[in-house]
Design goal:
It is a single chain. The chain has 78 residues and is mainly α. It has a domain at 22-62. It contains one helix and two strands, in the order E-E-H. It has one helix spanning 23-64, and strands at residues 12-15, 19-22. Strands 1-2 form a two-stranded antiparallel sheet. A hairpin with a 3-residue loop joins strand 1 and strand 2. The longest helix has 42 residues, at 23-64. It starts with 11 loop residues before the first strand and ends in a 14-residue tail after the last helix.
Length: 78
């Protein structure tokens, strides 16, 4: 039985005006773009969570600072 060793083949595709595009380079580029997008989404998700937590803390501080007697009396001395 004879084994055939195959050589790596560079796949290209002709585009319009005779330009060629390397399929491997395109795949790498798309993979990189996909990773970049995934990282961006994760960072935005983390920022959203932090903003929500800060908003909840602000609401708690505002509720804690409400005093029903505050501002009802005005002391004036001349």
């Amino acid at each position: 039985m004879k084994r055939m060793l195959s050589k790596p083949v560079l796949l290209t595709q002709n585009i319009g005006g005779g330009e060629s595009m390397d399929i491997a380079a395109l795949s790498t580029s798309l993979s990189s773009a996909s990773l970049s997008q995934a990282v961006s989404i994760r960072v935005l998700s983390m920022a959203k969570g932090q903003a929500e937590q800060q908003g909840q803390s602000l609401v708690q501080m505002m509720n804690a600072s409400l005093d029903p007697n505050l501002g009802k009396n005005l002391d004036i001395r001349v």
